[in-house]
Amino acid sequence: YFPAGSKTAIQETSEKYPNSPLAQAIDRLSIDPLHEGVKKLADSENTYRVRVGDYRIIYDLYKTRTRCFYC
User: Fold this and answer.
1) Which of 39, 52, 63, 70 has the fewest CB atoms within 10 Å, i.e. is most exposed?
2) Which residues, 6+ apart, have CB-to-CB distance to 2 below 8 Å?
3) Cα 45 vs. chain centroid, distance in angstroms?
């Protein structure tokens, strides 16, 4: 879920400035949402933040249980 307008803003920023620190941080979060530098917000079960220059990316992370089967 993205608040109104933020999803469009993120897509536009990533397309216009693919090598910007903000776009790179978003890409890194998609690969490893709990990488070094990510902070858990106090009094919140699933909300985290990461600092990117003067900006903060705040996001909710919901972990799902995965079952692996081996043959």
Assistant:
1) 70
2) 10
3) 16
Residues of the chain with pLDDT under 70: 1-5, 7, 64-71
Listed residue (2, 50, 61) closest to 28, CA to CA: 50
The pLDDT of residue 62:
78
Which among 20, 22, 63 has a CA at the least distance from the CA of 40? 63
Reported as type and span, the H/E element at residue 60 is: strand 55-60
pTM for the model stands at: 0.69
Q: Phi/psi at 55 (nearest 5 deg)?
A: -105, 160
Cα separation, 67 vs 35, in Å, equals 23
pLDDT of residue 60: 84
